[in-house]
Specification:
D-Maltodextrin-Binding Protein, domain 2, 13 helices, 334 residues, single chain, 2 domains, alpha/beta, seven-stranded mixed β-sheet, two-stranded parallel ribbon
């Protein structure tokens, strides 16, 4: 699918958070339009707050009556389902979704926040600001009919485990849950771990029952899902920085008045910037509070550079496999 140049230029970034409702996406007629969204997390999570900011900005820029319904706490499923619904143009109009869940439609999508793509939060923000991920956003829009209109995220991902480790030798063979995109299993295997794909909402029980020993997430997810209760050791691998695209259904967008389309495409990047800054600013505060309460212990990881060295050849091969060598080069140079 081809989009007007001025509209495509408004897709300034990628990121995460959610939207959905179990009813027709747009209510037409005399009543104001209703847009449906969903998010996996509670009111306190940065993703939820990012979507509320998106709603606020759309109303501001549209200037006409419009309704938003945001379903929280995974009441309408998980991000994988949200993305499928948006692609189909039914039930879900907007939401934040992990790039790993887009790989069925666009194989380059998981590259957005794969391990060791970004050095740190500042590097990630620079890449987003320079719009270096636009080719991937275009591929998702064309093949999945879902536009990536903003970039939430901004959390540094570490490994939470039921046993402490501080180097590669102690981490060897660790049974750890990873996201579904193959690049996650490949990179964690290269680092010496034993990765397995498990649904996000099943991680807690899987650790509790001994199926796995660990998972990986940013501070907001560790707090919201209470992973610290079964895996209180937070090993500071800092292996990834999350980008979570704010997504919007192309099929829904095409049914909307042009001034509302423009408001949505203007609000998306701004809401993403807001959510990214919020999660980044809360990262240390959340971990400090959890550690002070005795709920988790942060453990320095001595060999991040050595871990990256093991993973780099896998990432380079993956970038070549998905035709993202040019993007990878530009990210590294940013």
């Amino acid at each position: 699918m081809t989009y007007p140049t001025n509209r495509r230029n408004l897709i300034k970034g990628l990121g995460a958070a959610a939207g959905l409702v179990a009813m027709p996406a747009v209510v037409r007629g005399q009543a104001p339009i209703t847009l449906n969204g969903a998010v996996q997390f509670n009111d306190d999570h940065a993703f939820n707050k990012g979507l509320l900011k998106f709603e606020e900005l759309v109303k501001k820029y549209y200037g006409k009556p419009i309704n938003f319904v945001l379903h929280r706490n995974s009441s309408l499923g998980l991000e994988k389902q949200y993305f499928e619904y948006m692609s189909q143009g039914k039930a879900v109009d907007y939401g934040i979704v992990s790039p790993a869940h887009m790989s069925t439609f666009a194989k380059a999508a998981p590259f957005i926040d794969a391990p060791f793509v970004f050095k740190d939060i500042a590097h990630m923000n620079k890449v987003v600001g320079a719009n270096l991920l636009k080719p991937i956003a275009d591929e998702v829009a064309q093949k999945a009919e879902v536009m990536l209109i903003g970039s939430a995220g901004g959390g540094v991902r570490n490994i939470f485990s039921n046993k402490p480790f501080k180097n590669l030798a102690e981490m060897k063979g660790l049974k750890v849950r990873v996201q579904g995109a193959p690049i996650w299993s490949r990179t964690f295997t290269a680092a010496g771990m034993s990765p397995t794909v498990i649904a996000y909402n099943e991680v807690y029980n899987a650790i509790q029952n001994g199926v796995i020993a660990a998972g990986e997430n940013e501070a907001a997810g560790v707090e919201a899902m209470k992973f610290y209760e079964v895996a209180p050791n937070l090993c500071l691998t800092q292996h990834a920085v999350s980008i979570r695209p704010i997504c919007f259904s192309v099929k829904t967008l095409k049914t909307l008045p042009k001034d509302l389309q423009d408001a949505i495409l203007k609000a998306g990047p701004e809401a993403g910037d807001f959510a990214r800054a919020l999660e980044s600013s809360e990262e240390v505060t959340k971990l400090d509070a959890l550690e002070k309460a005795g709920k988790l212990k942060r453990i320095p990881f001595d060999e991040r550079d050595a871990m990256k060295k093991l993973v780099d050849p896998v990432m380079a091969a993956y970038a070549k496999e998905i035709g993202a060598e040019d993007i990878y080069t530009k990210i590294n140079a940013a």
